[in-house]
Amino acid sequence: MECARHGISAPSFICHHLQHGVSLGFHQPDEEPDPDYPFEHAWCDECDAVFQDEGGEWNDVSEGFARVTVICAGCLAEIRERNTNSD
Questions:
Q1: pLDDT tens, 1-52?
Q2: Which of 40, 42, 69, 75 has the fewest CB atoms within 10 Å, measured from its CB?
Q3: Up-side HSE of residue 49: CA atoms within 13 Å toward CB?
Q4: Is 64 in a helix, a strand, or coil?
Q5: What is the pTM of this model?
């Protein structure tokens, strides 16, 4: 994908809360990305709570709450830094 700020890079997928959020928490899967689908994805603390309530799986409820959006890998790095809680 092409980002106006970062140029061409791989797409990443995040919950809509993270896009403009600050200190919302930052969660990513424990397992390595699938080689056939090597894109990073992340979600906030609130989305993680819904994810856990849904048995630790993405389904209509958890995905509906997250409202996933696509961003570039460069934006993901900035979002990770801005939303990682340092408790």
A1: 999 999 999 999 999 999 999 999 999 998 887 888 888 999 999 999 999 9
A2: 69
A3: 4
A4: helix
A5: 0.89
The band of 86, judged by pLDDT with boundaries at 50, 70 and 90, is low
Cα–Cα distance, 71 to 67 (Å, whole number): 13
Q: What does the block give as tokens for 35? A: 């080689």
**Residue 52 burial (C-beta neighbours within 10 Å; 0-12, 13-18, 19+):** exposed
Q: Any idea which residue has 């990770």 for tokens?
A: 80
DSSP tally for the chain: helices H, then strands E: 4, 5
